[in-house]
Amino acid sequence: MAAIEMQPPRLTVGPFAWLRKNLFSTWYNVLLTFLALGLLYALLRPAIQWSLTEARWGVIPANLTLFMVGQYPREQLWRVWLSIYLLGALLGLSWGIWKDAARGFALIALGAGLAFALIGLLLNSNVWMHWLLAVALLLGCYALGRILTARIGSIMILAWLLYFPLVILLIAGSRFIPFFSPVPANAWGGLLLTLMITIIGNVTSLPLGILLALGRRSKLPIVRYFSIGYIELIRGVPLVSVLFMAYLLVPLFLPSDVPQPDTVIRAIIGFILFEAAYQAENVRGGLQAVPRGQYEAAQALGLSGPLTLSLIILPQALRAVIPAIFNSFISLFKDTSLVAIIGLFDILRIGRSVLAQSDWLGTHREVFLFAFVIYWVFNLAFTYGSRRMEEALGVGTR
Amino acid sequence: MSDNDTSQEIIICRDVHKWFDNFHVLKGIHLNVKKGEVIVIFGPSGSGKSTFIRCINRLEEHQKGQIIVDGLELGNDIRNIEKIRQEVGMVFQQFNLFPHLTVIQNIMLAPLWVRRTPKQLSRDQAMQLLRRVGIPEQAEKYPAQLSGGQQQRVAIARALAMQPKIMLFDEPTSALDPEMIKEVLDVMIELAKSGMTIVAVTHEMGFARAVANRMIFFDKGEIIEQGTPKQIFENPQSDRTKLFLSQILRH
Fold first, then answer.
1. What is the pTM of this model?
2. Contact B143/A396, CB-based, under 8 Å?
3. Which value does ipTM take for this structure?
4. What is the pLDDT of residue B4?
């Protein structure tokens, strides 16, 4: 009965096999390859030439701190570094504990940290020490996480949930906490501002979106109509108008004896309100994907409504729409560039102010290419990390 | 099991009616089930038999009449309903396992969250149940990695984990490939012999013959005929029963 054991056919791998298969498989493919290379060279040659000879890249290192944190008080920068250390430690722990699900993000952070350290060294700046420390923390906590194993998985989720408010507190400060004197939100700028809006906006709007999605399916007419009305209202207007509305109207909703919130806070409120409507629609799609039998099985076991929702329905619904949710995260990240219209200095607007410096007149290309690359690299990294996470979480679902 | 003991009726249905919009699905069902009894309900599709057993744990609402399970009446009081559901296990045609949880997590879920059983204890009990249904080695797999028959056995173990007084089976073998039907029926037969009260909608006449105390023939929302397997198979009274039996037993 023994069947003959056979090796699977040998796969051709490696860069040369790939080149041969995709670029040089036939004579006309060879021709096309060279034609395309020639065309690319003709198109890119001026750009490459410019970037190597004419471009004044000095504008970037000269203003790097400005690009990164805007007007954030320089003597308080250690609070930004502290947030980065914490992020490294948390990512390392998550990597050690959750393995595959967090590996993508951890590896990206590791690579980024090392790259930044190298850039710091090249620029003769002392930031390389900070980045190396963050990388060391990441690796150390990874080792620690492997020892602790999955036992503290739920504590990790809590730690992540606490991390974001904690970072806001670190960055913003408060007069009630020693050593963390308040930094007015209007002093946040550059990449720091962009990331703060992205993080606070996304972390807050997702739970709101989940509530709205559940509200839209509620049996109570008031809740249902409110949710539908809200979602359709927000989805029917452009983000710019929501930002203006938040800027102009938030003060009206607050009693006059309360200090008026900073423009940044108003902008963040605008983003949260806007993004929640979109996340609600994402989540609704996920809820619809959960078969009726799942509700019935949970009910038949005697699970209450809230338990059914939190243990059975939402985990499946959210998992089904992770790509859509992450997609909205990325949209919000890019949309933060709109805060310039209500007078905030995100990384793009900082670029414009740098151009006004007399030393760096006419460096438009350099500055905007830099901003372009920053956005692109962050999105690329995030996309990579989230795709790894999707794959890891997909285990067990059909 | 004792046929003349009327004090131990665990399910009492009196004149149960249900409509889907204008369609009258259940037309006055009277049925009492004693503790330890094994009831097989059969009949043509669309006869209301599935709807009826789904009324017993209120996955469907009845609109007229009375259903009393283990001394509690099913009404609009959600606490009563949840209490009854904890005492009534159900096994579905499509298994309905939770795909995002492993086999053992599927089984531990309800004891852990509803009964508040300590984690280690519910894990031990879950493993014991997996051994009882014959697949302890699958504990850490996800449902999608199991065959249909194995999934249905996990579903039975999941229902048993709540230590229910009654088990409802809604066509448990209809979605299975033929070679897997037996492994599920074996578990059901073992369960019936252990003294569990069972109400099963099924066309597995071998199962009925082996363990049923009573068989009930449903058609067009009514109970047409009931009796012991011997009476039903050897001497059916109604023409509709005879016709239906001849159709399903022909092969």
1. 0.83
2. yes
3. 0.92
4. 47
